Amino acid sequence: MKVKYFAWVRERVGKAEETIEPPATVRTVAELIAWLSGQSEAYAHAFEKPKVIRTAIDHAHVQSDAAIAGAREIAFFPPMTGG
Amino acid sequence: MTATCPVTIRIQQDDFDIAREIAVLTQSRTDIGAVVSFSGICRADEDSAKVAALTLEHYPGMAEEEIKRHADEASSRWPLSGVTIIHRVGRFMPGQNIVLVLTASQHRQAAFQAAEFLMDYLKTNAPFWKKEESATGTGWVEAHARDDEAAARWTRS
Known about the structure:
The complex is a heterodimer. Chain A is about 25% helix and about 25% strand. Chain A is α+β, with helices and mostly antiparallel strands. Chain B is of the alpha+beta class. Helices cover about 30% and strands about 35% of the residues of chain B. In chain B, strands 3, 4, 6, 8 and 9 form a five-stranded antiparallel β-sheet that branches. In chain B, helix 2 runs antiparallel to helix 3 and helix 3 (about 110-125) crosses helix 4 (about 145-150). Chains A and B meet through loops of A and strand 4, helix 2, helix 3 and strand 8 of B.
């Protein structure tokens, strides 16, 4: 699946997007965040406060217990500050 | 009679011309009795620091879709005759335009309320982020609880 990062999440991860293949045991957004956090210091830093992170699956906001099965694109970003 | 509600959504670097956008929204229409416009402008005074510039980043694709969902929600809640939402991205100086919301209706109440609803939802749900430059450095703007509270008051129980 494709993963995108925005604002300070992007800066901390060090890239805007990538394609990842998490193991089948990773089923939810929260589990994906935990798995990514274990990949490197950069991810751990980006996701150090998981409750602050907002997630969208295929361009729609989801909660951290949302299933990631079938997702084409998952995006992680801070609370929004537009307008 | 249910009037049609054309929705225009644009995300662009270029500035917008409010008078021109209102003219486009109302042209060839005789059913519109009210147009409300909201402009969001880059402000220099943020808390105690002087802001030198703001950079707006967005999530292309989702930003348009999320704004469209809000516009559809607004037109289902109020009898609207048209909606225009323009959000700029890029780097802005104090005094420059950032966002425009136009709502048109037969009567003013629907147009006022829908414009306020759209801005409250846009601030908390549309994927845009502001980075602020000031004399003390550069940093991402933090979301305000007051914006969440403003959006929450529109939640239907």
